[in-house]
What does this fold into?
Amino acid sequence: MAEIVRVVVDAMGGDNAPVEPVKGAVEAVKEKKEIHVILTGQKEVIEKELAKYPDYPTDRIEIVHASEVIETAEPPVNAIRKKKDSSIVVGLNMVKKKEADAFVSSGSTGAVLVGGQVIVGRSKGVERPPLAPLLPTLEGVSLLIDCGANVDARPSHLVQFAKMGSIYMEHVVGIKNPKVAIVNNGAEEEKGNALVKETFPLLKACKDINFIGSIEAREIPMGYADVIVCEAFVGNVILKLYEGVGAAMMKKIKGGMMKNLRSKIGALLVKPALKETLKDFDASEHGGAPLLGLKGLVVKTHGSAKAVEIRHAIFQCEQFTKQEINVKIAERILESKNQEPAKEQED
Amino acid sequence: MAEIVRVVVDAMGGDNAPVEPVKGAVEAVKEKKEIHVILTGQKEVIEKELAKYPDYPTDRIEIVHASEVIETAEPPVNAIRKKKDSSIVVGLNMVKKKEADAFVSSGSTGAVLVGGQVIVGRSKGVERPPLAPLLPTLEGVSLLIDCGANVDARPSHLVQFAKMGSIYMEHVVGIKNPKVAIVNNGAEEEKGNALVKETFPLLKACKDINFIGSIEAREIPMGYADVIVCEAFVGNVILKLYEGVGAAMMKKIKGGMMKNLRSKIGALLVKPALKETLKDFDASEHGGAPLLGLKGLVVKTHGSAKAVEIRHAIFQCEQFTKQEINVKIAERILESKNQEPAKEQED
It folds into this structure.
């Protein structure tokens, strides 16, 4: 177990860079002594930003210069290949060379996903590394796995997602024997598309996970399962609709509260309590989405992430590293492979 | 154009039967003179329920006895086959025999879908009849097509959904030149699973729809598109997550408002305005989900539908029938078939 956890933070990534990533890094090192942050990006820009904070432990924030910036709109594969001196590529290379334990970025999701796979590389036996954000629910949080860029998954991918997700929820989020469910269009056993029907019995047969069966989308926000397994296209729909419905409802509610004098006064009285409650339902409080199954940890935070999310993502990296999640995942995947009848393993 | 629209209402279907379906029927005939309702189900039960309403036009509500009831948990195919004297089968047979224009039920979704296809039958050329609920958005409503029971659709199915959905939105909901979008995991042209990638150029080539490209799930509640095309598994996830996130947020908000004395007073002041605003965001205000592409109209309302939803569904049927949507759909599908190069047409 490393005493110091070294987290690279992409200082150039996201809508609020460099302000928020730098702020999040400063807050993180101030709050926890075991954290060392490496900010990658344009040195002058980062230095100027850091100069705003007079009292932080300067020995635990380091800058590694990277002259280039990958824009969100750039085709990811090209960007990773060509911009060798970008904050993302430089940061991921540090993880690859074990100069850092983890990498956090609010930059281009595509570039982070591609870079994570190409530069850091998959753990032995992992068929497809899933992107797994935490969703807020009425009970706490659930891990939605997979929301990555590779769609049309195979049943064996989903089985690995279930295993990796269980390890993450147990050791990073602290939920004992996490409940695993597969997203389905009905609760009955005969429901499902071809992929779900094929995957269901495989999950049922896994002895190393706590599989509780199908979950309908309606039940996801209720927190009935801790690990929500699905193919990435469906995961993407779930993640984005969660945000969309939430945002639309908040807009409606705000509009309703501003309707007349009576409601405006009511709004003033109700606001503090409401804000407090809805904070729990805000994904940014829970850090970023880990890309699991790699040889190092890569965490993707929202493009619009603020310092609070960056800080939480850094703490997530600390927990992940201390708990040696990658080792646990590699062992579990290898174990499963050994128990399986021989068959093709790669994508 | 028929002067009187005859709508069969399943008096035994749903959690609130017979109370709410009967109430909805009474309200509908009271509000609109052109509507004639036929209530199917156990005669005595319905008569007792109707006796509660002293002043409605009794000549426009008729009872057709059906001794059996299909339960929600019954396997649909079996239920339709065996319970020939159920309210659903009796009602659908009336539509088939042109004794009624439309059928509305809050009962078993599976039985209504199966019965609609098997008893009423598909329109000529329609490959798969989609179930298409209206989703509330910040701009009004959008049609989500398909949310039916048949998953793993083919590209040609999605193209037909787009055409049928456009006709519905234009002539029933009254949106001129409705914007059609396909649900995707990104806005970029190269995004999508195999189905979406294959369907996208087909939709782009359709001259009879206003195709605007991909829509990410986040944008659905914003109302950026009028017709949201997707495969039924994804549609099911969208529909149910919409409900789930909404319900979870309302629970959170209510909890927040009851937090302390200050917020409780605020809640009292803000409640009426809030209720009014959130009404627009309530799916039940918009009636039920039509099963399109059949030889008659079948509308599925929520299992928990109240009279207001039944009433709106009946009005939907009136509009649908007066606008001769089925004729329009049949013509459009036939037109498209004629323009296509010859190929296999059936499921």
Q: What stands out?
A: Chain A has a mean pLDDT of 91.
